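User: Some background: our group keeps a shared notebook of sequences we're curious about, and every so often someone picks one and asks for a predicted structure to add to the entry. Today it's my turn. The entry only has the sequence so far, pasted here. Could you supply the structure so I can complete it?
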Amino acid sequence: MTEIFGIPIQAFLGQLMLGLVNGAFYAMLSLGLAVIFGLLDIVNFAHGALYMVGAFASWIMLDKWGVNYWASLVLAPLMVGALGVVIERSFLKRLYGLDPLYGLLLTFGLSLILEGVFRDQYGVSGQSYPVPEALAGATNLGFMILPNYRAWVVVASLIVCLGTWYLIERTRLGAYLRAGTENAKLVQAFGVNVPLMVMLTYGAGAALAGLAGVLAAPIIQVNPLMGSNLIIVVFAVVVIGGMGSILGSIVTGLGLGVVEGFTRVFYPEASNVVVFVIMAIVLVLRPAGLFGKEA
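Assistant: Of course. Here's the predicted structure to add to the notebook entry:
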């Protein structure tokens, strides 16, 4: 049997795929955080709770109304995005221009409220969501058995992440968004509705979290704590990539997922802390992050 560094190649590549799947979720969640912080200067601690709401929305729609997975991929992010719009209009718009710490505290409180509501209704044992029939089973690649759904998660995440990056960095709409957050009065003078843009930006960031929740539902148990278990790692990913850097969040999320997967092979005891060790090293050497801009 072929080995890599003393590890059977099947086990090695299996951990690589697991790392890519985890990295796909890190990339999507950190992407939403980077969009909201980079454009609105809000540290959105409710992002993990919105991810959980997306997963629960897909499960509830399937359990109560028979809405299938493919429809949930569209409906659940729209629902979570609408919730994000309500949060932005009701609470966050009052904090613009203040210290980002106020936004962090507010969104942290909102995340606790959302988790508490779902914990009261559904407990913490978790709900199972079936893999869609079209993506069931696995494909034999010769050197490993690749679950079809996990491959779909990686591909879908890459499409969404790269599409979001292109929209913000390479289109006129993205230019308006960046300009509106840097000099709102000047952009408004050209007839652009900046408050509407800000509201939709936060809603879009929330929708990205909801979409990640739908993608995660068939892989992990849907439970109220699934967001809080992940959000700390995702914040570390955003810091390493550079706060507000869209490309940094995508590359760093995928890369750290792979690093975490390899760590489980060679030194399993360190797999839960390797991301934070890397974060500490990056902050010492480059405080702005790998892709961030120095102040």
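Suggested note for the entry: The domain at 7-285 is CATH 1.10.3470 (ABC transporter involved in vitamin B12 uptake, BtuC). The longest strand covers residues 138-140.
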